[in-house]
Amino acid sequence: MIEDGRPRFWIDWYDRWNLILPILVLASAGWLVTRPRPAQPWVPPAPARPAVSPLASTTLESPASGARFVPDRLGDVEGRAQPGSVAVLFYSMAPSVERRELSRMPVGADGRYRFRLSRFPPGVYVIQVIAYAADGRTAASSPVDVWVVQPPAKPEAKPPGPTRRRP
Asked: What Cα–Cα distance (Å) separates residue 26 from each residue in 17, 29, 31, 90, 108?
């Protein structure tokens, strides 16, 4: 396997000069991968957002859960929320989870709100108040169950009938 004084391998085209081409290809690929890149310009970090204070908790103080009302004499819904926010009263008929807006009002500087309930047909209702701040923050009260019951029927007064006197 020696020809012209040079060793030849079992494949005649595989010699030293043919080894140089793959070495050059690998070296150039390595240089492309590891070449130094231009430095990126320094970008200052974004300023930190100011801390957003949470909205004060919204409480529903009256009526208590399980309160019973008659359709003619419903009570008030009152409680506390973030001063300056808007309190929105929602209700749904139990067991439905579809809430409907009943009323809304701005919360006073003292942080109190009051809604007057009227004209509810008998049934079980879930009421909840959600306070909305001008910047989009919200705070919700816990839901309260209220029963509106039909008042018991009053016995009709019988007109006085003839009275018998015993002789």
From this structure: 15, 5, 9, 72, 77
